[in-house]
Amino acid sequence: MVKEELANRPDNTAFTQQRLPAWQPMLSAGIVIPGFLVIGLAFIGIGVALFVTSQGIQVLELEYTGEQRTSPCYKCSDPTVKDCVCNLEFSITTLFKGPVFFYYGLSNYFQNYRKYGVSKDDQQLYGDLNNFKVGENTQLVYPSSLCYFPVFFQFLFFRSIKQNTCTKERKGMHFIFLFLPQSPSEYCAPYQYDSNKKPIVPCGSIANSMFNDTFKLYHLVNGTKKVVPFDGKGIAWWTDYNIKYRNPSVSPLKNAFNDTVKPLFWPKAAYELDPNDPANNGFINQDFLVWIRTAALPDFRKLYRRITEGDYAEGLPAGNYVLEIGYNYPVLSFDGTKKVVFSNVSWMGGKNEFLGIAYLVIGSLCIVMSIVMLIVYAKFKFPDEE
C-alpha cells in the first residue's frame, strides 16, 4: 500500500511541487488608481473607434417570410405550393459600397439544439466509404498496452467505440480485437436510412434540413433587367473546405454514391448540387459547408454570396432592384421568419454597435472608479503614507 502511494507521488521538482518563483504587483493606490485611469482611457478610445466604424457600415434587411397578405411572397408561404417564385422590389438611395455581402437569415431556428447539432456522420462527411454501407463489420486490432495510457489518450484512440474497451480481461491480452459496424452513424437517426434500408448520404437532420431557397438579383436600368453577378466561391470557412470535410477519392464522384439515397428533403443528390462547377459538389459544396456549420443562436444569418464582379465590384449603385426568390424553405410551421441581408464590412467585421458601446461603458466605469478611489484615498489615507 505504501509503495503504491509513493508511486503516485509527484516528482520532487519545482514545477510539480509548486515552488516556481512568482511575482505580483503591490496593489497600492499609486498603482491601482493610474492603472484604472489608463485602462479606462484605452477602452474609451477603442470603443469610439469601434462605434464610429460600425456606424459607417451599410446594412439593408428585407423580410420575405410571406406571412402578411400584402407580402409579395404570400402565395409562396403555403407549403402546398411547389416551385413558387416571388419578386421582392427595393430601392437604394446612395451607393452601397462594395464588396457587398449577401446573406440569408432565419429566426426561431434552433440549430444549437443538442440532438440536431450532432445529427451527422463526421466520418461519412470526411469521405469514408465505409460509412456509405449497410450492415457490414470491420475488425480493428489495437495493442492492449494502449489501455495503460491516461484516460484522455484512450479516448483519442477509442472515441468512436460505445463499449468499455479497456476491460480487465482485455488488459491481460496482447491485442484487443474490436468489430465496428460500417454504416452511417446512429446519431443520424431517423435520417440514417430510407424506408428501403438504403443508407442516406449525407445523413442526419442537419443535412436533411439544408436551406434551399434560391436568389437572383436584377438591377433595373432604363426599364430593363440587368443581372447582378453573384460570387459563391470561398464563402465557407477555409478549415471546413480544406481540412474537416472531403469527398470520397472516387472518380467520377457519382460512383461513390452507388447504393445510397439522397436526403429525403433534397431535390437532387449531393454530387449534383452545382451542375456548373464539378469541383463544387459533394461534401465540399460551398452552400452545404455554410449550412452544416451550425449557428449558436436561434436568430442567425449565413453568407449566401458576395457581389464583387463586373460593374458592381465597387458596390451597388443607387437605383431600383428586383430580387427573384425561389421560395422552397418552409418556416411558418415553427413560427420562424426569413430575410435577406445586404451588408458591407470593415476592418472590424460586420456591423456591431454593441461591441463599441460595451467598450465605452467599461472604459467609463474604470474612469469613474479611479476618481472614486482617488477621493477615498485623499480623504482616508494614513498620515505617514507616501
From TrEMBL:
Annotated TM spans:
27-52, 140-161, 357-378
Q: Which InterPro entries match?
A: CDC50/LEM3_fam (IPR005045)
Query: A biological process (GO) annotation for this entry?
Result: phospholipid translocation
> Its GO CC terms?
endoplasmic reticulum; Golgi apparatus; plasma membrane
Highest taxon, organism lineage: Eukaryota
Family statement: Belongs to the CDC50/LEM3 family.
Q: What is this protein called?
A: (spotted green pufferfish) hypothetical protein
Q: What organism does this protein naturally occur in? A: Tetraodon nigroviridis (Spotted green pufferfish)
